Amino acid sequence: MTLPTGFAEKYTQLLGSDAPAFLNSFNQPFEKGYRLDPLHPSGRSLVAADAVAVPWANDGFFGTVHGADPAFWTGAVYSQEPSAMAVGPQLHAQPGERVLDVAAAPGGKTTDIIGQMNDQGMLVSNDIDRSRAKILAENVERWGAAHTVVTSATPSQLRQSFPGFFDRILLDAPCSGEGMFRKDPSAMQYWHPDYPAECAHRQREILRDVLPMLKTGGDLVYSTCTFAPEEDEQIIAWLLQTYPGLSVVPIPLVGGMVAGRPEWADGNPDLAGCARLFPNLVRGEGHFVAHLHFSGVSEPDAQPAKRHEKNRHAAGFTHALTKAEQSLLAAFWEDTFNTPVPVAASRWGNQIIALPPAYPASAAKLKIMRPGLIIADIKGHRLVPNHALALAIPRDQWRFEEPVDLGAANQYRHGETLPTTMTGRHWVLMTYAASGFAVGHAVNGTIKNFYPKGLRI
C-alpha cells in the first residue's frame, strides 16, 4: 500500500523503533467481524464451535456474515469491524437510562448500546447526514429495537433540545480515518499533514455542543478511528482543561490494546487511562477510546412543555389517538398479541407508534427518522401492522405463528404468498428457525405477503 505523503514520516518520528511493524501492518489484510444480538433468542446457536471471540467485545467474533445469511435478516447478528467493537462496551449503559449516540450511522455502536440497555429506557441515535441516518434507522429496525429514537440533527440542534438530559453519551467522532486506511483505501485521498489538525478543530466544536447535554454524574465515551494525537490524546487533554469535573476512567487493556500516550499531548498522566488499538498489535484496525466521568454542574434538564392543544402529545410532534383509533388499536392488539397494548401509543403522520416516554417536548423540532416502535399504518378504517413488530415483539407474545423452512422463507422474502393450514383471518408472525422475520396475513389457507418491498430479494 502506498501511504499518503508525510504519513510514514510522522509516525516514524512518533513511534520510533515500533514504526516499521506499524507501517508494515498496512500491507496486511484487514480483519472482519460480527457481533451477536444479546436480546435475540437464537443468537448463540448461530456461532460456530470454532469461532474466535473478539477479546474486548461483548458477543463479538472474528469472521464474516453476509446479507443473505438468515442470521442477518432475522436480526441476530451485526457485521462490525473488530476494533470498532471496543468502543460500545466502555459506555456501560444500563436499562432505563437516557443515552445519546451522537454520530451513530451505520449503527454498530448503537446496536451494542441497545443490548446493554436491554432495550429499556431511551436511546437517541443520531446522524447529521440524512441518507446515513436512513440506513441507521433500517439497522435499528432490524435489531428489533423499540426504545430507540433515530434523529438527523446537528450537534447544536441536539444541544438545544436536550440540555443536561443524558446519563451517558457516546461520540465516535468524525476524524481523519487513518485507522481505516487498509479497510477503505479511498480514505487516504483526503489525508494531508494538516488534515488531523483540521479534524481536531471540528471535534472540539462538536464536543462544545455535546458536553452541555450530559447530566451531573454522567459519562462520555469519545472515540476515533485514527492514530493522530491531535484527534486523540490532545482532544482529551483539552477536555480535561476546559471542563472542570471531567475525569478519565481507565479502560482495561485486553487483546493487545495499549495505553494512551501522555507525551503526545500535555503530559497529563491520566491520559494513559485511554486505550489505543494499533493494527500491528491487535486483530483489527486502528482505534482510540477514552472514557470520561462528569462530576461538574450540568445544564438544567429539559422539561416537557405544557399541552395547549387538546390532542397534542406531550412529545410535541405526535398526536394523541382519537377514540376511533384507540378502538382500532385495542382490537388489533387483542387479536394479534397476548400482552397489554402499549400505553404510550400515539399518532405520527399516518402511523401509530410507541414513543419512549422520556422523549421530551423540547426535542419536538428535530428531524425524526424513526420514532421508537412503529406499530401500524392507518389505512382508512383498518390497521396494517408494521414490519418492525416481527423483529421487536418476542415470538411468545404473538397469538399466531407460521413456521417455515428456508426455501419458503426466501419465497416470502421475494414477495410471494404461501399456503397455510391455518383457518380464518389473522395477522401472523412468520418464523424461520424459531426467529421472527416478517408479518403475514393469513386469509383462508393463504399467507398474504406483507414483506416490505424495499427488503425483498
Key words describing this protein structure:
about 450 residues; alpha+beta; five-stranded mixed sheet
Strand percentage lies at 15-25%
| Total E-strand runs | 22
Mean pLDDT level: 94
Report on the biggest sheet. Answer: 10 strands, mixed
**Which structural class do the helices and strands define?**
alpha+beta
Q: Which segments are poorly predicted (pLDDT under 50) over 5 or more consecutive residues? A: 304-314
Please tally the helical runs, counting DSSP H or I stretches of 4 or more residues: 11
Gyration radius, to the nearest Å? 24 Å
How far is it from the N-terminal to the C-terminal residue, by CA? 36 Å
Structure description:
The structure is a single chain. Helix 7 links the parallel strand 7 (166-172) and strand 8. The protein is globular and about 75 Å long. It has 457 residues and is of the alpha+beta class. The strands form 4 sheets. Strands 4, 5, 6, 7, 8, 9, 10, 11, 12 and 15 form a 10-stranded mixed beta sheet that branches. Helix content is 22%, strand content 23%. The two termini are 36 Å apart. It has helices at 7-15, 19-24, 70-73, 108-116, 130-142, 155-161, 195-210, 233-242, 323-336, 388-392, 406-414, and strands at residues 33-36, 60-62, 77-79, 98-101, 122-126, 148-151, 166-172, 214-224, 246-248, 258-259, 275-277, 287-294, 345-348, 351-354, 368-370, 373-379, 382-385, 401-404, 418-419, 425-432, 435-443, 446-449. The chain has 11 helices and 22 strands. Helix 6 (155-161) runs parallel beside helix 7.
Please render the helix and strand layout as text.
Elements: H1 7-15, H2 19-24, E1 33-36, E2 60-62, H3 70-73, E3 77-79, E4 98-101, H4 108-116, E5 122-126, H5 130-142, E6 148-151, H6 155-161, E7 166-172, H7 195-210, E8 214-224, H8 233-242, E9 246-248, E10 258-259, E11 275-277, E12 287-294, H9 323-336, E13 345-348, E14 351-354, E15 368-370, E16 373-379, E17 382-385, H10 388-392, E18 401-404, H11 406-414, E19 418-419, E20 425-432, E21 435-443, E22 446-449
Parallel strand pairs: 4-5, 4-7, 5-6, 7-8, 18-20
Antiparallel strand pairs: 1-2, 1-3, 6-15, 8-12, 9-12, 10-11, 11-12, 13-14, 14-16, 16-17, 19-22, 20-21, 21-22
Helix pairs in contact: 6-7
